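Appendix B. One record, verbatim.
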Amino acid sequence: MEPSDCPSTGNYPIEISPLSSTELQELQEDFNTFNSDQLCPHRFDSYGFIEPDGVCARLAGIIPQGTEDLMITRAKEAVVKFGTFTNVPDTSMLVVQRHGGIGSSTERILVVFRNQIEQGLEVMHTDINVWLSANAAMHIYGGWYKEILVPECDKTSEAEARAAAIGTEITYYDIAGQPNVFIVSEENISETATRVVVPVIKGNSIELQVAWRFSVGLSSWYLFVDTTAGEVVRIDQLFVT
């Protein structure tokens, strides 16, 4: 199908608005009731994503060595048990990205799950982190999106997106806090891109846009070009200064 023939896709892109103070309060009350002191205290950001509330470490002694698989299972079960708040309905959907090792004196372990997948597309910035003690999960960070729309076809091809990205100026700060400008060129942008879903801030809302993701500057940045409008909609810095 030619880009010019692409039909519109309903309410694409899905827009997520901040919750009202009343909605946030109700969400918090629902969590507190359901949690009943199982996890450490948690709160919700303005869009309803779960995050720890303050410092809490319910340690229960040394985690036995060789129990990484058990810890991963417990982390998956915790994410799904609190699925009303993480939007993850089944443990089979959770894929481990990485986890901490268990040494002779380890009292807590971090398990990180990969980003959400929607219709075969990775949804950026949806990894979920779970901290566990020897006997239970303590903290859950992050969650998945309830609804994502993916257009039937792309109005902007990968080649057109690459051309649109070239010339983009990226401002970054060096270790001394001084601003620098990096200009995207033919030589420093990846030849190919990956089609993903990316959250884009528009005013106070989040739009979930399908985009071409390019690697720029020896994997220093991800640059995202919307597959519908053909515009650069987000740039993620991959290094720390």
